[in-house]
Amino acid sequence: NNIVLEQNSPIVNTGDKLVLFDTGMGSAQGFGPATGRQQKSLKEAGIKPEDVDAVVFSHGHIDHIGGVVDANDKVLFPNAQYYIAESDFDYWTNYDKAGPQLKAFVDQARKNLLPVRDRLVFYKDDQEILPGIHALSAPGHTVGHTIFVISSGGKSFAYTADLTHHPILLMEKPRMEFAYDTDPKQAANSRVKMLDMLAANKIPVLAYHYPWPGVGHIAKTAEGFHYVPEPMQMTL
Ligand SMILES: [Zn+2]
Fold this sequence. Notes:
12 strands
């Protein structure tokens, strides 16, 4: 009951392209009534959905692909190209692969991804998918789960998606296994490898499910890692 599971979607303006990462739950109610606010948040930020050039999915889970279409199946980012790993697209749009217990996930993936099937780009590990945006495969949470390092002017930050779902659990003890991982052992290996890299290079992170805004730094500890949230600046 004490676990906060926010959904923080970074949006990056490369100067040329407006790039949104993940789309939340959309109209699905599986995470409770407080979700599905992405369209409203974009509006409040002065961003028009039709101006979004690229929607990049970290993976095909329900809480990341849910906001492509509205409740009436209207595509909400009409001018965007969509990016995902092919393995994740295949897995989450296929009832046979995901299995009956995850039917709701496949329902949502099909509802949201099939309408933009002809605008999907399948990215590869270590590919610069857009200027300054590198995809780094971090499988285990799902077969094609991917994180992204965004670089500009000599600075970088990483969008870590679902590499860890909680700033203490799965950070302090990164070998802990998470029930919704497709392959929990592989997920733990990816987690340790990527957190090691991010800590060693002092790359700030934005984590999808951390308490808002999910921005901070990672330090290595004897047993795992420690998350240091960036203090909020309420006055700019
Ligand atoms: Zn998630």
